[in-house]
Specification:
The complex is a heterotrimer of chains A (537), B (382) and C (365).
Chain A (H helix, E strand, L loop, with lengths): L1 H20 L17 H12 L5 E8 L5 E8 L5 H18 L12 H7 L5 E4 L2 H9 L3 E5 L5 E4 L29 H11 L5 E8 L5 E8 L5 H13 L8 H8 L11 E3 L2 H9 L3 E5 L5 E4 L10 H5 L2 H30 L7 H11 L6 H21 L2 H21 L5 H14 L6 H36 L1 E2 L2 E2 L52 H4 L1
Antiparallel strand pairs in A: 1-2, 2-4, 3-5, 4-5, 6-7, 7-9, 8-10, 9-10, 11-12
Helix pairs in contact in A: 6-9, 11-15, 11-16, 13-14, 13-15, 13-16
Chain B lengths: L1 H12 L12 E10 L7 E8 L1 H4 L13 E8 L2 H8 L6 E3 L5 E5 H6 L3 H9 L8 E5 L3 H4 L10 H10 L12 H8 L7 E10 L2 E12 L5 E5 L1 H10 L7 E5 L6 E18 L2 E17 L8 H29 L6 H8 L1 H7 L3 H4 L4 E12 L10
Parallel strand pairs in B: 1-4, 1-5, 5-6, 6-7, 12-13
Antiparallel strand pairs in B: 1-2, 2-3, 7-8, 8-9, 10-11, 11-12
Chain C lengths: L7 H13 L2 H4 L9 H25 L5 H43 L5 H17 L1 H26 L17 H13 L21 H27 L9 H7 L2 E2 L3 E2 L2 H30 L6 H18 L3 H45 L1
Antiparallel strand pairs in C: 1-2
Helix pairs in contact in C: 1-6, 1-8, 1-10, 3-7, 3-8, 3-12, 4-5, 4-10, 4-11, 4-12, 5-10, 5-11, 6-10, 8-9, 10-11
Classes of the chains: A alpha+beta (537), B alpha/beta (382), C mainly alpha (365).
């Protein structure tokens, strides 16, 4: 109570200090400052702004008839492809220009002529302020300043070292495209474009992060995504005023609906085909430069149970796997809790022979089932975390140690009961069937174990009900999180517990694609050709 | 946040775990026996508890010297009192949910009746409603001490014995539900299984056969022998898979017929104010064992065997009927059948049923079918 | 009333969950012996006038809650008085259901202090009600779906315990006793749906109001009949001696000694439905209070009223026997005053009001 008050007081104080100290934005010095016509003055000013960073290169040169034009290139070493600069900027200006008919080269007043006849690069823009100039160079472009011109040219020479498109590590498939998003925003938008070859795929770009000035892109399908959703996404993104966006997770936590929930209400994927599929259902994807994960909103609970491969393989097996994932999810949150409840409260539920076996296995175990379950769960989480963080070779050693020490030695020493080991291992494996909700399910598992230890099955039911209420109360960008289960949307159930054949899924998700619900025409059921009449005879 | 705080509040506020029973702190009771006691007021109870220490696979060798169970004898004023008094001797709390059998000694069942012993097992939430009820010839606690073969724990052994009784159809199986269902019915007499110990070569093994019959005041009034038990089982529709042994129509030898299905209907009829019970048995059997020559292609002979089994069934029922009349116990549920069909008339005769029942006219119709000779055409023993 | 809306299906699910609510714990109508399965049907038939009144009121004042209707029909003072009576009844009903749940759970876990169950159950109830009608509606469809699944499984598992002869004789009790048992079903649980006069206005498709209510009640009837039938056929003579027949029925399930003693699962289903019912009443009380005092939202009232409900449950009965006696002896005369008499008065006043001006206009004409 008092802590809460204190916090509030401190927060208001901080707020005041912040208002006073409002740290100056990095480009406030250059805000709106226009380029000069004098090259030397410009270069001096530029040096003032950028300081003495050795990677920011200024290359002066002369060109034109009798080398009368003084010019300078400004770029960031490492972000640009020097070959492009040499081949397409310096060479044309310093060498090719002399091959042209001198009549054609009238005295130039601005850069437009350079742009139109001399520079052989794809993307050239004019910039007129220092702010734009620096922004462009920091994004791997080269800026060409010419003495006497009031505008500079921003030439696309991006060419930094980037990871190429590779197979994603988390969302792996047996059947389906192998490519995954990379850290480079442009590649990622390109990957999306390659999936949806349609001008209606709109990509809006914006910059977030006061210090990092990270480029992010919103991708959506015009005419399918609802304007309200788009407006909401834009407004939430533009609200973000923070130092840095280093990963899409930053964005996620600034735009999600339920910041206190254990469950994520913003989806993510590292596969362009999944992102494209979600965009096609009317969702909006948010791509963040430097992150191989695309965010998709709105996100539904059910998305955690849908894998890309479900849609590529045949519906029966896909449906079976779906049901299996639901079972695994419930097992992963419930199994240890139920075990604890059975072992400490409801022994009557266990068939007699099994009870005797269990009683034999827990005989002499010094800990109560509740403590044992929590301890074993924690040990597993420690092993798991260790396995992920350690280098691969050591990670394997960890798993061997885990298996030997926990699996064998602890049982033989009579510290834990065998059934518990089996159960914890099984639970852990099942929690990975639904990767999206793994972190939520892990925490819920512990909470439910506690509830079960305190109140038995009654506690579990109460816990599950609270969970249900919580999930039912969640919304993601206006869409109820549990849709299509609660509220029940019969049509969308085709892609929930089961995955119906493609030709039956006529509609896009009901509450997401409000704008344009129809996915396909309704007579797509394939059938063999009608038998030929004559052949039948 | 809300959900976390909710959980935290709950876990902290409720850190006491009141109804908690750690499995390691439970004494799993598998059977219980009640015997007569010299002092009238007291109840003597023997509870059979699994002794996990000697049940563990490594300890099998030593199990002869140290059996995997512990028969705990206690006494008290009521059953519950006995159970709680047991904790004065047992370091672990007796746990009843897996109790399989309740055995009453015949003396107790005949003299005191079992009424006061059963209430606890209904009222308490722990015991299951499918506990088998038995009456033992002689001391009940001896039953729990028998030499248990195949299953190390006598109570579990007896429980399996009862579950497999349909193979012989010479013993009845009555659980708590059925006993009370009969007791709570209009006029049906409750029954229990009847068990005794056979002693041979110093080993005491169980024999489950026959039936103990109770009157409606929970007092045992008599027994049915094996054949009479089978007769009762025919009528109350509890016979699924017995064996009928009868003399062969040809020779002096016996043949046996395995019952594969049986269905009985009890139909009370009131004709001209006279109550009459009609029993219709439909049975199907297969030829199981024909000692001596039986030619299954001989249709005449086949029919005679079939009629033979009908005669056996009729005889079974007649024998049990005779015994029931003698005991004045409506073990067949005729009264309830009347009640179900003629509820108004029943009201008038309900009070006198115990006198009406023995004099009741009973018509038995048996329809049998002999459906298969099993694997061979001719007996090898010509 | 704010702009939140629920679909007709969700309203139906809420009604089903509500009616089944505590009735699956106490299984009303089972004291009619072998004819118990019929009591649900006759009970609904007897309850139909109440349902008709509810439908009529909601159709003449679409989108209004009972509190608002009372104000419109009976004037500000009379309306408030009536609303106060109703709110008392809803509040008391919620407390009663809480008692039923806690009694039931504590008969399974006897040494845990009774208030623990009350508080823990009420915590979820308050959490659910606080989230508002939409979340309640969403949860109800999930809960009702799974409890239907559950009864289906019980039906299948009970199959080899069912003895159809237990339905005989059809008339094991007198007509009078039978009608009394049916009347008990009318009052509890069917009469309780008067609470929905507070919630019907939230439906998004008002044309479907009456069909939704009727369909939901028919489903409840089928469910109840099925439930009682299994209890009659599966429990036989033991049925009458059980406090919780449904629960005892589930205790009989024994499939190859593997699936035995599934009572704890049955108890869970009972608990869940009971919580749904209580939260509906709690929401109705909170909403009614908010409307009486012209508050913008009812959410802040849920916690204090819920706490009062816990206290009420704590003090109103000394033991489960008092609760049972109250159910058997008092409730069946106490509840109809609120379930039937008050709504009827409201409706009559409305008709009178309609009638008078029309006569006036006629005479003028």
């Amino acid at each position: 109570m008092f802590g809460f008050l204190k916090k509030k007081v401190r927060a208001t104080q901080l707020h005041r200090i912040n208002e006073k100290k409002q740290s100056p934005a990095p480009d406030s010095a250059t805000a709106g400052e226009q380029l000069n016509t004098d090259l030397d003055e410009n270069l001096i000013r530029l040096r003032e702004i950028i300081g003495s960073s050795p990677d920011m290169v200024v290359r002066k040169f002369n060109f034109g008839p009798r080398y009368s034009y003084k010019a300078a290139l400004f770029f960031v070493d490492g972000l640009v492809d020097k070959k492009i600069i040499n081949e397409t900027i310096i060479k044309p200006l310093m060498y090719d220009m002399h091959l042209l008919d001198t009549q054609q080269i009238r005295p130039m007043k601005d850069a437009s002529q350079l742009q139109s006849i001399l520079l052989s690069v794809g993307d050239v823009k004019e910039v007129s302020s220092f702010e734009e100039l620096i922004k462009a160079s920091l994004y791997g472009n080269t800026v060409l300043l010419v003495d006497g011109f009031s505008k500079a040219l921003d030439i696309d020479t991006k060419g930094w070292q980037a990871r190429s498109v590779q197979e994603p590590t988390i969302e792996q498939v047996v059947r389906g495209p192998r490519e995954g998003f990379t850290e480079t925003l442009r590649y990622n938008t390109a990957l999306l474009r390659r999936k949806i070859l349609n001008p209606n795929l709109i990509i809006e770009q914006m910059i977030v992060g006061e210090q990092t000035r990270t480029h992010i892109a919103i991708a959506y399908l015009k005419g399918v995504s609802s304007p309200e959703l788009l407006a909401e996404v834009r407004s939430r993104l533009s609200r973000i005023k923070t130092d840095a966006i280093l990963e899409s997770g930053y964005i996620e936590q600034f735009i999600e609906d339920a910041p206190y929930s254990l469950f994520s209400t913003v989806g993510n994927t590292e596969k362009p085909d999944i992102a494209a599929a979600r965009i096609l259902e009317g969702r909006v994807a948010i791509l963040v430069d430097g992150t191989p994960f695309a965010l998709t909103v709105p996100m539904l609970f059910i998305e955690g149970f849908q894998a890309a491969e479900d849609y590529y393989s045949r519906p029966y097996y896909a449906s079976f796997i779906r049901l299996l994932r639901f079972a695994a999810f419930f097992l992963s949150i419930l199994a240890p809790a139920v075990y604890v409840a059975l072992l400490t409260y409801h022994q009557e539920f266990i068939p007699t022979p099994l009870l005797i076996t269990m009683a034999l296995s827990v005989q002499g175990i010094p800990f109560p089932a509740l403590v044992e379950a929590i301890l074993m769960g924690l040990i597993f989480e420690i092993l798991r975390e260790g396995g992920i963080r350690l280098p691969q070779q050591v990670g394997q050693a960890i798993s061997i140690v885990g298996a030997l020490v926990i699996g064998q030695a602890a049982v033989q020493a009579g510290l834990v009961d065998q059934a518990m080991i089996i159960l914890i291992a099984f639970t852990a494996v099942s929690s990975f069937l639904v990767v999206t909700h793994t972190d939520a399910s892990t925490l819920i598992r512990f909470l439910l174990v506690l509830m079960a230890g305190v109140l038995g099955a009654f506690g579990i039911v109460i816990g599950l009900l609270a969970l249900l209420v919580h999930l039912a109360a969640l919304r993601s960008f206006g869409v109820p999180y549990l849709e299509p289960i609660a509220p029940l949307v019969i049509g969308d159930l085709k892609d929930s517990y089961i995955r119906a054949p493609w030709w039956t899924m006529l509609k896009r998700p009901h509450l997401i694609a409000v704008q344009n619900p129809t996915r396909q025409s309704d007579n797509l059921r394939p059938s063999p050709p009608q038998p030929d009449q004559t052949e039948a005879d | 946040m809300k959900i976390i705080s909710l959980f935290l509040c709950l876990s902290i506020a409720l850190s006491g775990c009141w109804d908690k029973n750690e499995l390691t702190s439970l004494a799993i009771t598998t059977g219980v026996a009640f015997d007569t006691e010299e002092s009238e007021e007291d109840i003597q109870m023997t509870a059979q508890i699994i002794n996990l220490g000697t049940l563990a696979p490594a300890a099998v060798q030593s199990s002869i010297a140290n059996p995997p169970y512990w028969n705990l004898k206690t006494r008290g004023k009521t059953v519950f009192d006995c159970i709680r008094n047991a904790t004065m001797q047992s370091p672990k709390k007796l746990y009843w949910a897996h109790n399989q059998i309740i055995v009453f000694s015949e003396d107790l069942a005949r003299q005191e009746g079992v009424g006061e012993y059963l209430d606890f097992f209904f009222r308490d939430a722990e015991p299951r409603i499918s506990i088998w009820l038995l009456v033992s010839k002689g001391s009940a606690s001896d039953i729990l001490k028998m030499d248990s073969k195949l299953d190390p724990i006598p109570a579990m052994n007896i429980s399996s014995l009862i579950e497999n009784r349909s193979n012989n159809a010479k013993a009845s199986a009555v659980d708590l539900y059925e006993f009370s269902n009969r007791q709570l019915s209009q006029a049906t007499a409750p029954v229990m299984s009847y068990i005794q110990l056979l002693s041979a070569n110093g080993e005491k093994t169980p024999l489950l056969s026959g039936t103990a019959v109770f009157n409606r005041d929970f007092k045992m009034i008599g027994t049915l022998n094996e054949r009479e038990t089978r007769g009762m089982l025919w009528v109350i529709n509890h016979l699924d898979n017995g064996l009928l042994v009868m003399p062969s129509p040809q020779d002096e030898v016996n043949i046996s017929i395995e019952v594969i299905s049986a269905k009985t209907k009890i139909e009370p009829q009131i004709i001209n104010g006279e109550l009459k019970i009609k029993i219709l048995v439909r049975e199907k059997g297969v030829l199981g064992d024909a000692d001596g020559f039986v030619d299954v292609l001989d249709k005449e002979l086949w029919n005679r065997i079939n009629q033979g089994q009908a005669a056996v069934i009729r005889q079974d029922i007649l024998l049990s009927l005779e015994q029931a009349r003698l005991l004045k116990a409506d073990i067949f549920g005729f009264g309830d059948a009347v009640y179900k069909k003629y509820p108004r008339e029943w009201k008038e005769i309900k009070e006198d049923w115990i006198d009406i029942f023995p004099a009741l006219e009973v018509e038995i119709q048996v329809q049998t079918a002999l459906v298969r000779p099993n694997m061979i055409l001719h007996s090898i023993n010509k | 009333m704010d702009s939140t809306r629920i679909s007709s299906n969700q309203l139906g699910a809420l009604i089903i969950g509500f009616v089944l609510g505590s009735s699956v714990i106490l299984s009303p109508g089972l004291n009619a012996g072998s004819a118990s399965w019929l009591t649900v049907i006759t009970g609904v038939a007897l309850a139909s006038p109440i349902v008709a009144v509810i439908i009529k009121l909601s159709s003449v004042y679409p989108g209004k809650t009972l509190v608002e209707i009372n104000d419109l029909v009976l004037g500000p003072i009379g309306g408030k008085l009536f609303s106060l009576l109703y709110l008392w009844y809803f509040f008391h009903l919620g407390a009663l259901v809480l008692n039923d749940i806690a009694d039931f759970i504590s008969s399974i876990m006897p040494t845990t202090p009774y208030p623990v169950f009350l508080v823990v159950t009420a915590a979820v109830v308050i959490y659910l009600s606080r989230n508002g009608i939409e979340v309640m509606a969403r949860c109800s469809s999930v809960i009702v779906f799974y409890s239907f699944l559950f009864i289906l499984i019980v039906l299948i598992l009970m199959f080899n315990h069912i003895d159809l002869a237990n339905f005989l004789p059809i008339s094991s009790i007198s007509i009078r006793d039978f009608l009394k048992a049916s009347y008990e079903v009318t009052v509890f649980p069917f009469g309780d749906i008067i609470v929905f006069t507070m919630l019907i206005g939230f439906i998004n498709d008002r044309n479907k109001t009456s069909s939704t209510i009727v369909t939901a009640l028919i489903i409840c009837t089928i469910y109840g009949t099925l439930f009682n039938s299994i209890a009659v056929a599966g429990l036989g003579n033991l049925m009458e001696s059980a406090i919780y027949p449904g629960y005892n029925m589930v205790r009989r399930i024994d499939i190859y000694s593997i699936i035995t003693r599934v009572d704890i699962i049955g108890a869970s289903a009972n608990l869940t439905l009971g919580i749904l019912k209580t939260s509906v009443t709690l929401y109705a009380v909170s909403l009614g209070c908010a409307q009486m005092f012209k508050l913008r939202t009812s959410a802040p009232l849920v916690l204090p009223i819920g706490t009062l409900m816990i206290l009420m449950s704590l003090i109103q009965f000394d033991s489960v026997i008092h609760n049972l006696v109250f159910h058997e002896k008092t409730y069946i005369y106490y509840a109809p005053f609120f379930q039937a008499f008050l709504p009827l008065v409201t409706l009559l006043m409305y008709l009178l009001k309609q009638h008078l001006p029309s006569e006036k206009s006629k005479s003028v004409a």
